[in-house]
Amino acid sequence: QVQLVESGGGLVQPGGSLRLSCAASGRFFSHNSMGWYRQPPGKARELVATITNYSTTYGDSVKGRFTISRDNAKNTVYLQMNSLKPEDTALYYCLLRDFGIGQNYWGQGTQVTVSS
User: Fold this and answer.
1) Are 115 and 86 in contact, with CB atoms under 8 Å apart?
2) Is 56 within 8 Å of 49 (Cβ atoms)?
3) Cα 74 from chain centroid?
4) Burial (CB count within 10 angstroms: exposed 0-12, middle 13-18, buried 19+), residue 88
5) SS3 assignment, position 86
6) What contacts 98, CB < 8 A, 6 or more positions away?
7) Where are the alpha helices (DSSP H) in the chain?
8) 53 by DSSP, 3-state: which?
9) What's CA 62's distance to the chain center, in Å?
10) Which of 16, 23, 60, 75 is a good FRET partner for 29, with 20 to 30 A between their CA atoms?
11) 61: Cβ–Cβ under 8 A, 6 or more apart, which residues?
12) What confidence tier does 31 reach under pLDDT thresholds 50, 70, 90?
């Protein structure tokens, strides 16, 4: 069974920075994608960023401000968030896509609140 544990959320002022981490445990194929989605209050879940061993993808609203990275030795994905805006306020979910068996796994979510 795959488990994803997120950390790093919190309250930050506009213009500030936060770094999210998501550590995966359990059995999954090395051919996978890890990443982040978010769900603002009253809105649908949306793509923030994903990363494979070969490429990264970003949502339009975070390009140039957020950076995703991964440490395969630790099975961990990171999201460095800079120049945060109030509209970045959301519950941030970690996702692991196991391409070997076509299975998606989600974390419990970590809250990010951007407010003065």
Assistant:
1) yes
2) yes
3) 16
4) buried
5) helix
6) 2, 28, 29, 32, 104, 105
7) none
8) coil
9) 12
10) 60
11) 46, 87
12) confident
Q: How far is CA 97 from the centre of its chain?
A: 12
Q: Is 113 exposed, middle or buried (0-12, 13-18, 19+ CB in 10 A)?
A: middle
Which has the closest alpha carbon to 75: 94, 93, 92? 94
Are 16 and 81 a contacting pair, CB within 8 Å? no
- 98: β partners: 32, 103
Quick: pLDDT tens for 48-78.
999 999 999 999 999 999 999 999 999 999 9
Residues of the chain by 3-state class (helix, strand, coil), percent to 5: 5, 55, 45
Residue type, 5: V
- 53-62's contacts with Cβ under 8 Å and 24+ in sequence apart are 61/87, 62/88
Alpha carbons 61 and 6: distance in angstroms, whole number: 22
CA triple 37-43-85, angle to 5 deg: 65
Amino acid occupying residue 59: G
Q: ∠ CA(35), CA(41), CA(42), 5° rounding?
A: 110
